[in-house]
Amino acid sequence: MMRSRHGLRRRDGEGFTLIEVLVALAIIAVALMAALRAAGQGTGNVTELRSRLLAGWVAQNLLVEQRARGEWLPSGTYRGTARQGNMDFIWREEVIETNNHAFRQVNIFVFAPPRESHLLAHLTGFLTQPPGSGL
């Protein structure tokens, strides 16, 4: 080692000073915190996407069940709850008359409980009047 007027001095290529190591650790810590935050946000997005997927299935199931039963619902608003994938949902169904009296428009909205404030899915479909029920 060589001596200078400021104390010990390192030779080139013999290692890093304490300051250099601390700066490198600070940079690594900032990068790891950013990666951790991004991973945490990704986890939250997965939960929201799962809820939306299951809510879409709830809406599709409601419409398909009505078609399969041949139901001819009167115009109006209907409400209920459904369970899909171990999650509870609230649904609202609006049945609207169309210009063609043999069809009804059905708008299904699926929400996260406890209130109808967080819309997860919306589906619009049509029901046809069952044969023999008259126009």
Quick summary:
The protein is of the alpha+beta class and about 140 residues long.
Structural class call reads alpha+beta
The rounded Rg comes to 31 Å
Helical fraction equals: 25-40%
| Domain module count | 1
Report on this model:
The protein has one domain (18-128): GSPII I/J protein-like (Pantoate--beta-alanine Ligase, Chain: A,domain 2), CATH 3.30.1300. The protein has one helix spanning 18-69, and strands spanning 2-4, 7-9, 76-84, 87-97, 103-111, 119-128. The radius of gyration is 31 Å and the shape is rod-shaped. The chain is of the alpha+beta class and 135 residues long. Helices cover 39% and strands 33% of the residues. The model has no long low-confidence stretch (mean pLDDT 88). It has a four-stranded antiparallel sheet with strand order 3-4-5-6, covered by helices on one side. The chain contains one helix and six strands, in the order ββαββββ.
In terms of topology, how is this protein built?
Elements: E1 2-4, E2 7-9, H1 18-69, E3 76-84, E4 87-97, E5 103-111, E6 119-128
Antiparallel strand pairs: 1-2, 3-4, 4-5, 5-6
Keywords:
single chain; 135 residues; alpha+beta; Pantoate--beta-alanine Ligase, Chain: A,domain 2; four-stranded antiparallel sheet; two-stranded antiparallel sheet
